[in-house]
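Section 5: illustrative case.
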């Protein structure tokens, strides 16, 4: 019987454990997770007595991996999609509906940006400056701004990138984040025409709606946190072990060829031995664990920066808050606000609206929403107390809505220190080099958000690829 050690109990690590057991039901699988719960950046929190997601809240439904995994855990009947309320951008002191036909903010038709952009900025975008990109990779800002103008980047692309990566267009890799557009630019083709072909009428960034295409996003009724919990239960039911509160601080190969992970305090360490290892932790801890066994790979992973952020969830009395329009809004950094986005959860998700019915004091209805704060290299905005962060979010939310807001019934602050890896220019090459180095290390693979994409489907695919490579 082959023994496996999976280091990390987020969605990547749990997927790896699940995949190993599907390939070999007799495998001896142990998952080590440093936190007191599984799920990584998928997490539940309690706000005014309501259990909601305080990390990732949805999956990209147009990739198959997440919905497939949801099905394997028996939650297919619980899959729900957003209501179809439109997403918005709060910029220049106004709300602007995000045009339906965009690809990460790059429009199919610049005329649809009027209002969000000035007439002069729209004209600049309409007259795309087409040239051939020679480099293997360039920043998103260089790719899009050089062709369509800086305003398209600042007012549309940047807030969308911030929502996904908490990063900046001037640093993020177009090869990793906008591969189709970079390929078009390398072929000397216009970006506008490429988006026009790629995003059909009725498609685009909207969560759902009248389009005949399937919805872009999905989640599980009751919260996405149910997915890792169900997956961990499935692993345990098939004989796997999921050990919580256990941080692997050293990794080495012992003389008989097996791998040893050392945990616990140095005076009283605990060792876990296994034939094969899957590293499914963020780049920084992965680099530390690989320092002795794969120093070049460790050095490369250590170069991947990360962004810290916080999700502030607020519960208001519905009768005091007043109406909310749209599913929420994104905020361009150029406008100088602390808040980078807000999701009107009770508008976006039917299950959240129902959750708030009668849940408040005296049986009143509650409206739940969330606000996101924090971008790459802007950690200073998070260096305040939870109460101060809630106050800032409430003040800027009131400014965005154009009215005073009542005191929230309850608030929850979830901080994600170093939560999102940054895909800098050259990231794909860096990952390829890491994998090439690890190819020379027997029975050891790595996966996760630092490798193939920060979204949940990408993490699932990364884990399955790692198990395939492990053999």
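Designed sequence:
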């Amino acid at each position: 019987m082959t023994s496996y050690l999976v280091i990390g109990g987020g969605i990547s690590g749990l997927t790896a454990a699940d995949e190993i057991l599907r390939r070999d039901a007799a495998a001896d699988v142990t998952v080590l997770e440093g936190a007191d719960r599984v799920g990584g950046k998928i997490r539940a929190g309690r706000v005014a007595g309501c259990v909601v997601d305080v990390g990732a809240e949805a999956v990209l439904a147009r990739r198959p991996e997440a919905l497939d995994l949801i099905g394997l855990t028996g939650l297919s009947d619980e899959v729900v999609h957003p209501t179809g309320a439109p997403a918005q951008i709060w910029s220049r002191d106004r709300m602007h509906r995000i045009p339906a036909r965009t690809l990460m903010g790059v429009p199919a038709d610049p005329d649809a940006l009027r209002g969000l952009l000035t007439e002069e900025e729209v004209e600049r975008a309409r007259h795309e400056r087409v040239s051939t990109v020679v480099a293997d990779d360039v920043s998103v800002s260089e790719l899009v701004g050089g062709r369509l103008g800086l305003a398209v980047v600042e007012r549309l692309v940047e807030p969308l990138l911030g929502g996904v990566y908490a990063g900046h267009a001037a640093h993020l890799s177009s090869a990793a984040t906008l591969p189709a557009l970079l390929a078009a630019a390398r072929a000397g083709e216009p970006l506008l025409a490429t988006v026009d072909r790629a995003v059909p009428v009725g498609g685009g960034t909207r969560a759902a709606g009248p389009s005949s295409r399937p919805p872009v996003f999905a989640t599980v009724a009751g919260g996405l946190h149910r997915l890792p919990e169900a997956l961990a239960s499935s692993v345990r039911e098939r004989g796997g072990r999921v050990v919580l509160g256990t941080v692997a601080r050293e990794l080495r190969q012992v003389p008989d060829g097996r791998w040893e992970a050392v945990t616990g305090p140095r005076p009283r360490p605990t060792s876990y031995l296994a034939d094969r290892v899957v590293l499914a932790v963020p780049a920084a801890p992965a680099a530390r664990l690989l320092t002795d066994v794969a120093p070049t790979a460790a050095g490369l992973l250590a170069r991947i920066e990360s962004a810290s952020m916080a999700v502030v969830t607020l519960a208001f009395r519905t009768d005091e808050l007043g109406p909310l329009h749209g599913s929420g809004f994104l905020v361009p950094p150029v406008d100088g606000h602390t808040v980078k986005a807000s999701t009107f959860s009770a508008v976006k998700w039917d299950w959240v609206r129902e959750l708030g019915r009668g849940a408040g004091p005296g049986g009143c209805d509650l409206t739940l929403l969330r606000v996101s704060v924090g971008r790459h290299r802007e950690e200073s905005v998070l260096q305040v107390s939870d109460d101060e962060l809630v106050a800032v979010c409430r003040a800027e939310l009131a400014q965005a809505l154009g009215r005073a807001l009542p005191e929230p019934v309850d608030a929850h602050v979830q901080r994600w220190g170093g939560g999102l890896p940054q895909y800098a220019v050259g990231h794909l090459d860096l990952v390829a080099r890491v994998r090439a180095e690890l190819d020379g290390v027997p029975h050891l693979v790595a996966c996760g958000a630092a490798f193939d994409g920060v979204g949940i489907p990408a993490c699932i695919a990364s884990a399955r690829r790692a198990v395939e490579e492990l053999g």
